[in-house]
Design brief:
single chain, about 280 residues, mainly alpha
Length: about 280
Amino acid sequence: MIRDALGNREYWEKWTTFAEWAIEHKKDEARKPAVDKEYEPQYVYGIKNKYRELMLYRYSRGDPVSELGQYFPLLMDMWEEAERLGKDVWSPDTQFTRHTWRVNKDFYMDSFWLVGLALALEIPDDQWQRLLGLIGNEGEDILLDRIIASRAPGRKIGDKLLFPKPYRHLLAAVDAPQDKQPAKLLHFLERWYPELAGGRDIMSKPYWYNSYPDLEIGGGYFGHWCLEAVAAAKAFGLDDSQCLGHPHYPGDLLRPNGPSTHPPRPEAELKPAKAGWLAKLFGKR
């Protein structure tokens, strides 16, 4: 079944398939001698992001959760290669802004999402250690450090919350008495997307914000999934029962053997609008 509340079968088939193709195409291009050495590390880093998006495309499409973990080592291969290439290209100031949570909310969120996926999918220890080495920022954030410490007990914990909007609500859920945690986790989930808007400054929004499924415009929408809530639920054993079925909560990540926590959608919403999209996608007739 399609897990996401939006998009029909055609959308999810089309753009999941395209994401798989795009990754291989970009990897082929990356193997060629670089025309622009300064852009090369960012190009490779973009492939790393495509792997993360592919995991979410496949989750939204309804693929088995057990199949998603295969992309973690491939994602980290690309990330490590980008870092290797970037050592000779990125200035100290660029290195700082790319790698420091407190000045780069996008990297903080990306780290949170990957930690959430890693914990939920229970990736092997060697992959977990690679991920922590790439994320860095030990001792910087009281919430994400604590979540990471659930699997890395020696990690230093930060003394402040870097991004109170929306994460103060999640910290409140983590710190709440056990009987209050389910309602507070749901409260965070309900505030998560609206508060990510960041006010009037469009640059403060994540790049995927306000993306929605559209076959004609493009496939930038891979679902608006709150992986941060899953990360906290997995790390601290929070009762997430009140979140199940919420359109932003990927509850199946914590229940890989089913049944699905997402409500079934009417067949009329899922029916493809037309046939032949795959041939058009790759220029075939």
